[in-house]
Amino acid sequence: MTDASATAARRPGEQALTALGLSAPAPDPADASPHSFPGGGRWRTEIPSCEGPEALAVVLKEASRLDVPIHRISQGSGVWMLTDAEITEMVESTGERDIELCLFTGPRGTWDIGGSTRTDSRGAGLRARGHDAVAGCVEDAVRATELGVKCLLVADEGVLWTLHRARVAGIIPADTTLKVSALIGPVNPAAYAVYERLGADSVNVPSDLTLDHLTEIRRVSGAPMDMYIEAPDDLGGYVRMYEVAELIRRGAPLYLKFGLSKAPGIYPYGHHMRELTLATAKERVRRGRLALDLLARHGADGDMAPLGSRLPGDLQRFEISS
Fold this sequence. Notes:
By secondary structure, the chain is an alpha/beta fold. The protein has helices at 14-19, 53-66, 84-96, 130-146, 157-169, 189-198, 211-218, 244-251, 274-297; strands at 43-47, 72-74, 100-104, 151-154, 177-180, 202-204, 225-230, 254-258. An eight-stranded parallel β-barrel has the order 1-2-3-4-5-6-7-8, surrounded by six helices. The longest helix is centred in the C-terminal third of the chain and has 24 residues, at 274-297. It is globular and about 60 Å long.
């Protein structure tokens, strides 16, 4: 990775456009996020949709080959779709490399019996339907953390608040981090602040938020933000690689998520989807290399958080009544 001090920071096409009389206004310092990760750095990396030990091995091998630094690896099918042995293998493999492993919790609405998720309004969407679905998420959380998983992915506000309370009560380890899924990501600063106060340690936002939207969020919350630099098709298929440096400037502390558009969905994963899952896992790492190369060319790759760092820092929480 290029040393940012060796390359003056610039925006894409800046020199050529200036020579043609088409230069853009200088960035406004007031737009920049004042926040960073604890321990230093303004961005971390994440490889999503890593659905089991075999896909994880592909990701780790390709990351080594392409020299792609990884802070977090996440899975989307859910804890309940993995055996104890598979979870343990993933925990051990990521632990050897000091990478945070994040597994999705429990049932969600689109896999449940509720017909409203099939309507145009999408009804309750991905959220946990009823007490039993919440219970399944909690069961997954307890099981996963007992097996050594330190990060849990949630797609329901009630599940988030319940797991935060469980963390405070010592039912799951206090250093467990809770990550809000892009499937329910907030689209305004007030909602983002609510997720932080409900217990979120990082929050996925939809990849179609504007740069001004990120600045608005950073005026009310310093909670780490997750954002697909390339979003899967079911989340819009947006590709924002040329904006990476500005996304970091506006949205830090920011997890750069390297998704994949024009690829079939793989949730919930099973071995019948093996070849597709391994091929897309490998390509997500390559997409990460492309984004990091862009950062290097624009002199903006020098403020990465240290590898192995995972905690979010001091965040605002709602009071838990006794």
